[in-house]
Design brief:
The protein has helices spanning about 1-5, 45-55, 80-85, 105-110, 125-130, 130-140, 170-180, 190-195, 245-255, and strands at about 20-25, 30-35, 60-65, 90-95, 115-120, 140-150, 155, 185, 210-215, 225, 240-245, 260-265, 275, 295-300, 305-310. The protein has about 325 residues and is of the alpha/beta class. Its cofactor is Zn(2+).
Length: about 325
């Protein structure tokens, strides 16, 4: 299942509006088929893996990050039926599909057809479907906030100079993260001061540039969408929103508890008296700050460090 979760990253973000799902077919301890959700959402991962496996799918075990769908659409048949007709012996799903058209019925239909099933509730599969699950649970995109700062927590000098706090390896990593998002958001102050391109400048990934969004009460040029309040994030047609935040936007989103993942790039410099990363967002007591964030990733990027934290919520 962990391998399937890693494979599913190939679907993101091209599979939008469908979730990026992956399927691995294993027979006699040999991988006979692999697939992930195609551009635009079809074919689904199971269909792609079955097409690759051919007759070798009969008697195989299918490892699928998301429960196979139980509903037929104009764009294709239900994946649980495809797996049954292919003669798959067992299906292992990483996450139950929250879509009410499936929601357990996919696995139930497989069992009724004589196919063995297991539901793992896999953390790796859940992480790979973060955007889809955020949309189902909170009716909004999964929000990642990126902050590049100095060792003393500054995102710019007192005069506003911020290019560049981090080095080239960290900046390349940011562009790779942009390429995995459906949309990218900055605040009006950042837009007016820097006129950021908000594109992807990595060879071969330029076409993955996300939709550009500015949170402001002003106007933006053609090709850039404007929203006026954080509440309007819910209306964005995106599964993954990447936020490159200034201090005020960071505070606003944190105050509204809209951030699911924090990505911190820290440069080995001390600025002193610079502009802080996050403005006051109304934290009443220090105890309220604890237990909210869990470290999920850490790596070195040249001379800079990268840490990612996941918001811990009681669902």
């Amino acid at each position: 299942m962990d391998a399937a979760a890693r494979l599913s990253t190939r679907a993101r973000p091209a599979s939008h509006p469908n979730p990026g799902v992956a399927c691995i077919l294993v027979r006699d301890e040999i991988v006979v088929g692999r697939g992930w959700t195609a551009t635009g959402g079809r074919p689904h991962a199971e269909a792609a893996a079955l097409a690759q496996a051919g007759d070798a799918a009969r008697g195989a075990t299918a490892y699928v990050t998301l429960e196979p769908c139980a509903h037929r659409s104009e764009r294709g048949p239900a994946c649980c039926d495809l797996l049954t007709h292919a003669g798959v012996a067992r299906v292992v799903a990483g996450v139950e599909d929250p879509d009410p058209r499936t929601a357990g019925e996919g696995l139930a239909r497989l069992r009724r057809a004589g196919v063995a099933t297991d539901l793992l509730s896999s953390p790796a599969a859940q992480a790979s479907l973060a955007g889809y699950l955020a949309r189902a649970a909170h009716a909004r995109p999964h929000v990642t906030m990126k902050i590049a700062m100095s060792l003393d927590g500054c995102i710019a000098t007192a005069g506003g100079e911020s290019q560049w706090i981090t080095g080239p390896q960290a900046r390349a990593h940011v562009h790779a993260q942009r390429a995995r998002a459906d949309a990218i958001l900055v605040g009006g102050g950042t837009w007016r001061a820097d006129r950021p391109r908000l594109d992807v400048r990595l060879p071969g990934l330029e076409h993955h540039a996300p939709q550009r969004i500015v949170l402001t009460r002003g106007v933006a040029p053609d090709g850039v969408r404007v929203i006026n309040t954080p509440a309007q994030i819910a209306a964005l047609e995106a599964l993954y929103l990447y936020v490159e935040a200034g201090a005020d936007i960071a505070a606003s989103l944190l105050a509204d508890d809209l951030v699911d993942r924090l990505e911190i790039y820290r440069a080995p410099i001390v600025i002193g008296g610079g502009r802080g990363a996050v403005s006051n967002f109304g934290l009443a007591a220090l105890d309220d700050a604890h237990g909210r964030w869990a470290l999920v990733e850490r790596r070195q990027l040249g001379s800079d460090s990268f840490e990612a934290y996941s918001r811990q919520r009681q669902e």
